[in-house]
Design brief:
Elements: E1 16-20, H1 24-29, H2 35-56, E2 60-67, H3 75-98, E3 101-106, H4 114-126, E4 133-141, H5 143-159, H6 170-174, E5 187-190, E6 209-212, H7 222-233
Parallel strand pairs: 1-2, 1-5, 2-4, 3-4, 5-6
Family: Belongs to the UPP synthase family.
Organism: Peptostreptococcus russellii
Function: Catalyzes the condensation of isopentenyl diphosphate (IPP) with allylic pyrophosphates generating different type of terpenoids.
């Protein structure tokens, strides 16, 4: 697919887009189908969005796939989500690798089912040298948990004499976060009409632009991604300063 729906400046495409994929359940409910039906449709959207992001020149794409709070959902829904993750990785790995996409994760994936951990590690290993697009899946991820873990690691290094307290600045602290190898998001997209962060990348989005859409995630397509990028390109980013 090479159609351009919006007049996007390829030289000003956000380097990093982070997406809160919301609305699978509501999309399914509107069709009188179970929530798992919506999650399956949402996986198809991931395929389209990853392909389009790479085509447009996005370098980092981070998807909020499963939060630390999502364990509270019904067990059958959690189980279905985990199976979908495995299915996606097994089905898409070869294509992602062929298209120079690197698979990355943030969050404590050790708490996921063993088959998920195995597929994630395999996918990350096989795509580790790819450079065109870094696809980060946030799994069992929470922004507060990541910050707390970083604080603990910082304190540990202080106690062991590896750090001097006066030398700790934003860059030093950020190196302890799960996202240490990823640039901060330029644009955060949330689908399905909700306008909250839901514990996503709380440190990293300090100066990100936000784009909210009423479109449910299964209906978010190439045109909608271009629309979000077009909106981003028509904003004046000041980073706290004055222009």
């Amino acid at each position: 697919m090479d159609k351009m729906y919006y007049d996007i400046d390829k030289n000003k495409v956000p380097q990093h887009i982070a997406i809160i994929m919301d609305g699978n359940g509501r999309w399914a409910k509107s069709r009188m189908m179970p929530r798992t039906y919506g999650h399956k449709a949402g996986v198809e959207t991931i395929r389209k969005v990853v392909k389009e992001a790479k085509r447009l020149g996005v370098k980092y794409l981070t998807l909020y796939a499963f939060s630390t709070e999502n364990w509270k959902r019904p067990k059958d829904e959690v189980s279905a989500l985990m199976k979908l993750l495995v299915t996606y990785l097994r089905r898409e790995l070869a294509e992602l690798d062929k298209n120079d996409v690197k698979i990355n994760t943030i969050g404590d994936i050790s708490k996921l089912p063993e088959v998920c951990v195995a597929e994630l590690n395999k996918s990350k290993e096989e795509t580790k040298d790819n450079k065109s697009l870094v696809l980060t899946l946030a799994l069992n991820y929470g922004g507060r948990a990541d910050i707390l873990d970083a604080v603990k690691l910082t304190c540990k290094d202080l106690l062991e004499g590896k750090l001097e307290i006066d030398n700790i600045d934003e860059d030093v602290f950020a190196a302890y976060l799960d996202t240490k190898d990823i640039v901060d998001p330029d644009l955060v997209v949330r689908t399905s009409g909700e306008q909250r962060l839901s514990n996503f990348l709380l440190w990293e989005i300090a100066y990100s632009e936000f784009y909210y859409t009423d479109i449910h995630w299964p209906d978010f397509d190439e045109e909608e991604l271009q629309k979000a990028i077009y909106s981003y390109q028509n904003r004046d980013r000041r980073f706290g300063g004055v222009k």
